[in-house]
Amino acid sequence: MFLIDFLFPKACLSCGRLGSYICLPCQRKLKSIEGKYCFYCGGESISNYTHPACRRIGGVDGLITFFQYGRVLGRIIKNIKYRGVKGGLNELISLVGAVNYSAMMKMVDKKASREEQIRVSFIPLSHQRQARRGFNQAELIANAVAKRLGIKQESLLVKTRTTLPQANTKSIDERKKNLQGVFSVKKIRRPFPSVVFLADDILTTGTTIREATRVLKRAGARFVFAVTLAKV
Ligand SMILES: [Zn+2]
Ligand SMILES: [Zn+2]
Predict the structure, then answer these.
(1) pLDDT the model gives residue 166
(2) Quick one: which of 72, 64, 67, 69 has its CA closest to 16?
(3) For residue 62, which ligand has an atom nearest its CA?
(4) pLDDT by residue (tens digit) across 99-149?
(5) Which ligand sits closest to the CA of 75?
(6) Ligand 1 mean position, distance from CA 40 (Å)
(7) Is the terminal CB of the chain with fewer CB neighbours within 10 Å at N or C?
(8) What is the pLDDT of residues 25-37, one digit of tens each?
(9) Ligand 1 mean position to 77 CA, how many Å?
(10) Whole-angstrom Cα distance, residue 135 to residue 82?
(11) Residue 71 CA: which ligand is closest?
């Protein structure tokens, strides 16, 4: 046992039981996502791709999401974020089934030839928020996914200003406006990675991922796949 565990014993981020960040009974309550969904319409989709009819210019090409958002997961994610429990996120990610990673590898095989550049990246936080929180959940997810897939992680985007939390915006229009022009690429480079797995924590309306994808594609990405820990 490390001294740190002795001073601050690990407690379940959902129910408070001592021993680990996600206790076994709570692990069992997490719902892994078994189906494959279209990013835009939420309907079932073969091999995680956006339906041809839902596809749009500069849009998201596919979605991989690990868990269905529910009460237990909601509490865990909230505690990781606001109490800064990084270890909790790693425990959560370690519960992601191998099937998700093989699905991602298949997406890459189909869309990218070997010479093409593939990267795992993430939705950035503004400087202020990152400084306050100490870490970015989306970046940690990207790190874990990149390691597991053996693909390089690269921070491709910057957030140029602080926005209202999306939860505080009411209409879709308001959400869009809140995000307009908020992301830009870190540096213009040629060639720009052609396939990007873009990580974020929770997929709700998808406005953030759409806006980030638009920017990545304008910079030269050919395919962008969203990777989220959970989906509402
Ligand atoms: Zn628990
Ligand atoms: Zn669709």
Answers:
(1) 63
(2) 72
(3) 2
(4) 888 888 888 876 666 556 899 999 999 888 888 888 899 999 999 999 988
(5) 1
(6) 33
(7) N
(8) 999 999 988 778 9
(9) 13
(10) 11
(11) 1
